[in-house]
Amino acid sequence: MTHRTLREVYAELQLEEYVELGDFLARVQAGEFGDFSREDCVVFLQQVERDMLANIETQLEAHPHWEPLREQAMANVQQTIQGLIDKLSEEV
Could you report how far apart the first and last alpha carbons of the chain are, in Å? Predict the structure, then answer.
């Protein structure tokens, strides 16, 4: 049996239903999708953060008038992801 990554599990789930990251991680920690460690969750969240920050950059290329929002948008992403990582720490 091939071990799926959290990224793959999340992508497949998103095709079926919209799930907030925090809710997804709670389901992961409850064992709904198999055995994943806290470190697996942190790596997944870091990947999501990179993707979201890259998406902001892509959107700014297409919409340069949004440039004044760059720093706040990036800070929001980083704060959200760090909050989810911190919550993982509390729950382990």
Answer: 27
- Angstrom distance (rounded) from CA 30 to CA 25: 8
Q: How far apart are CA 22 and CA 36, in angstroms?
A: 15
* Spatial contact of 81 and 45, defined as CB atoms under 8 Å apart: yes
Q: What was the pLDDT predicted at 91?
A: 61
Whether residue 86 is contained in a domain is answered as yes
Helices (H), 30-69: 38-62
Give the range of the structural domain holding residue 36, as residue numbers without chain letter: 6-91
Give me the amino acid identity at 40: D
Rounded distance, CA 70 to CA 76, Å? 10
Q: What is the mean pLDDT of the chain?
A: 93
Counting other chains too, the contacts that 70-77 makes at CB distance below 8 Å and 24 or more residues apart are 77/49, 77/52, 77/53
